[in-house]
Design a protein that fits this description.
Elements (H helix, E strand, L loop, with lengths): L3 H18 L4 H8 L3 H8 L7 H10 L4 H14 L15 H11 L2 E6 L10 H8 L8 H14 L10 E7 H5 L5 H14 L5 E6 L13 E5 L6 E4 L6 E3 L2 H17 L3 H14 L2
Parallel strand pairs: 1-2, 2-3
Antiparallel strand pairs: 1-4, 4-5, 5-6
């Protein structure tokens, strides 16, 4: 997928800039450049790119060694490269940019959902029904653009090499009639088909399970080949990222607990089929 190099380069540059700053306070460095502390923070957390002029000033302020500067300039150039989802940016919040980039680069995604089918497995009509009910959506054009972006994201599952996708769904997801009975029936067929795809592992958490380690929060763990994992959890006003090793470990343990308590892959496929049949 185009765009993965761009975001990877931006994060590598962010890591290098934080390393060069060392023990100096970000507020002090930013003040010396006439910047707000939030501007420096956005650059150092890869939430925004950096212009050539700003990079040169920052490298001077950090006394970056001459031998490293060309590599850092190259990272900045690649970090500003146009990503494939750029045409959709006007219709989504800024943090979504980062989420799509993680999705494009992950080698493994472990996702827990208690309410809805994950975006990578949604049908067009199911996604449309969800998006048009969003509290921040005010016009049909935004709904259409967000739906188109969600469908475009699904191509990540066909890239070479494809990532592994491990999903645990609460049984409620199979019964919630998002978009109506017929939309749900077709969505369940999509889930059934997806469960047979190489690299996709789908499990259902039955109602009879009771309490488990992830009550009240949906999340995705993004695992990468050459850098630490990231967890994204969802809320009404946007997602939250967790990158600390201790926090990521909590979510890994929670996901392992979910898998242990859920139906097997084969049992899950049978439940999806039976639930869909009842909607005919």
């Amino acid at each position: 997928m185009a765009g993965s190099t761009s975001m990877a380069a931006r994060r590598e540059l962010a890591d290098e800039l934080r390393r060069l700053r060392g023990g100096r306070r970000g507020a002090v460095v930013a003040a010396g450049l006439g910047w707000s502390e939030s501007k420096l923070s956005r650059i150092e957390t890869a939430r925004t790119g950096i212009s050539d002029a700003d990079l040169e000033r920052l490298l001077d302020a950090l006394a970056a060694p001459a031998g490293e500067r060309n590599r850092l300039r190259d990272l900045a150039d690649r970090g500003r490269a146009r990503v494939w989802w750029a045409p959709y940016r006007s219709s989504v919040a800024d943090p979504y940019d980062e989420y799509v980039a993680f999705e494009a680069e992950a080698v493994l995604m472990c996702e827990w959902e208690a309410q809805l089918v994950p975006g990578l497995l949604q049908t067009d009509e199911y996604a449309h029904a969800i998006i048009q009910t969003g509290a921040d959506v005010h016009d049909p054009e935004t709904v259409q653009r967000r739906t188109a972006l969600r469908m475009a994201r699904q191509s990540v599952l066909t890239r070479d090499p494809a990532p592994r996708l491990c999903v645990v769904l609460d049984e409620a997801v199979l019964r919630r009639e998002v978009g109506g009975r017929e939309v749900l029936r077709r969505q369940l067929q999509r889930l059934f088909d997806a469960s047979r795809r190489p690299g996709v592992e789908l499990q259902v958490m039955p109602f009879t399970t009771g309490a488990h380690a992830a009550l009240g929060e949906a999340f995705v763990i993004f695992e990468f080949e050459d850098r630490p994992a990231v967890v994204h959890s969802e809320a009404l006003t946007g997602g939250q990222l967790r990158t600390k090793d201790t926090e990521v470990l909590v979510y890994r343990k929670a996901f392992a607990d979910l898998r242990r308590r859920s139906l097997s892959v084969d049992e899950t496929r049978e439940v999806i089929a039976r639930t869909g049949e009842r909607l005919d």
